[in-house]
Amino acid sequence: MNYTKLLFSLVFSLMAVVVFGQQRPKPAQTEKVPVDLVNADSLVGGVFNGKKIDKLIGSVVFKQKDGMLYADSVYQYKGAESNLLEAFGNVRITQADTVTITGNHAMYNGNTRTAAIDGNVIMRDPRMTLNTPSLLYNLETKTATYTEGGTIVDPENRLQSRRGSYNTTTKIFDFQQDVNVTTADYNIKAQNMKYNTLTKVVYFQGPTFIKGQQGDLYAEEGTYNTLTKVSNFGRNAYILTKEYRLGGDKLFYDQAKGYGYAEKNVSLRSLKDDVTIRGQVGRYWREKGEAKVYGNRPVMETIMEGDTLYMSADTLYSREAKGARTASMIFAYPNVKIFKSDLQGKADSLSYNRTDSVMHLNMKPVLWNEQSQLVSDTIHIQMRNKAIDRMYMYSNAFIVSEDTLKNYNQVKGRDMTAYFKQGDISKVNVNGNGESIYFALEGDSLVTGMNKSISSDMILRFGENKLKTISFLVQPDASFIPPHELKEAEKTLEGFSWMAELRPTKKEVLARPAPAKPKQEPKKATNTKAAKPKKAAAKKKNGAAVK
């Protein structure tokens, strides 16, 4: 009986050990997949570099999972390195019938499933061909890496770089150092770039130059589709054509349509006459030779007479000449403001003919030159060698000049022509319906009287930014009024208006309007009960209450 109990006790103990042993987790083991020999003409054992090997010769083929290794001869290392192969002559590695790599020599590690191939290496998949002196290919991650320079060719493009990697699953190349891409229309240079062999899209991060027959592009991040020829750029991007340089923090360009769009810190420069326009949004049409900048009061600047002319408006539009009968133009509208050290102005709209060097100011323009104010329904400014040569004032022309004693010398007429020398008014011709008021001074400190005259045509001459003389071409109706007889109403001509407060400063022209604040909706009443009207407080007047 005691023997029977002892037997049962041993049996249950053994069962418990077995059960608990099955429940205890087993340590993870790394699976070693052997590299199987498929074919060889002959096999010779020996020692190579102090290690035991099997030397396989003639039409050698090895297989591991979906990978195949072909070579003229292979050294298979024995012992702990039994999964290490060294292949010589006509080496070829394939994977899943999609990737083929050829070279002169290779080291294959079956444990890590990596192959280091060198000597005239060529890698092919259905999308591209890679040529490089040496290549490391990982059959697990399906990634190829090269560090000695590589050239990739596909049906559309040719790509080169010093270093790079290619993922055969995602079909994306990652290039580094001295990257050069050649397409049918562009040559792209960068230091860092990615390329999708499926979509044919180039991705870049860092300074990138794209040079083409119809214009160049630059950006520090973005994409370029080599099929659709559409670019989306960021950070200091610009388009450079024969006529324009359009840049911005965000840039879109469709080469096929010749259309560009820029946002944020936009700059548009006309290369022919060195005119630059800055704003918030820019558009460019290559075939039309037209560009438009708007948003946040764009500003145009150009050099004139060694000085910078600034002009702002809600919209600035540039158009290049197309043919001998057209002119290069700049249009500004509405609310135009101009600033130059010796000329300021405002108008509703402006057009600048860069071919003929004529500026047209429309809708009651006002100009200021030193101490003079010029007003008419329309003003045309004729430039010569980027300097103001003449100014034509059409309909309701009116010139006011302030003297040292704050008196206003005035001339009005139907039309006027002003002549300039070195940026200052030197002479004004009045044509039709001329009237003038001129204050005579003694020593720039004492008024000796006021000349008032009416003559259809007259000539005004200026010197030292002051009105010096008035000549009448037709016998005038003139009078001289001494100071003690001057009445305030006689000191101005009909239509006189001194608008010094509207004279733009450089700061005003360059200023950007503050963004509009969103309108706040009125708060809804939380108490739905109608409030009881309060009795009006009684007002007292002369001690009596007024109801």
Average pLDDT score = 85
What is the CA-atom radius of gyration, in angstroms? 43 Å
Bin the strand percentage: over 45%
Main sheet attributes: strand count, strand direction, barrel closure: 38 strands, antiparallel
What percentage of residues falls in helices of 4 or more residues? Answer: under 10%
Bulk shape? rod-shaped
Could you characterize the architecture of this molecule?
- With 547 residues, the protein is mainly beta.
- The termini are far apart.
- 5% of the residues lie in helices and 61% in strands.
List the SSEs and their pairings.
Layout: H1 2-23, E1 36-39, E2 42-48, E3 51-64, E4 67-77, E5 84-95, E6 99-109, E7 114-125, E8 128-138, E9 143-146, E10 150-153, E11 158-161, E12 163-167, E13 172-182, E14 186-196, E15 201-212, E16 215-225, E17 230-240, E18 244-254, E19 259-270, E20 275-285, E21 290-294, E22 299-304, E23 307-312, E24 315-319, E25 329-333, E26 336-340, E27 343-347, E28 349-353, E29 358-362, E30 366-369, E31 372-375, E32 378-384, E33 387-402, E34 408-421, E35 424-442, E36 446-463, E37 466-472, E38 477-481, H2 506-510, E39 539-541, E40 544-546
Antiparallel strand pairs: 1-3, 2-3, 3-4, 4-5, 5-6, 6-7, 7-8, 8-9, 8-10, 9-12, 10-11, 11-13, 12-13, 13-14, 14-15, 15-16, 16-17, 17-18, 18-19, 19-20, 20-21, 20-22, 21-24, 22-23, 23-26, 24-25, 25-28, 26-27, 27-30, 28-29, 29-32, 30-31, 31-33, 32-33, 33-34, 34-35, 35-36, 36-37, 36-38, 39-40
Protein name: OstA-like protein
Pfam family, one: OstA_2
GO cellular component, one term: cell outer membrane
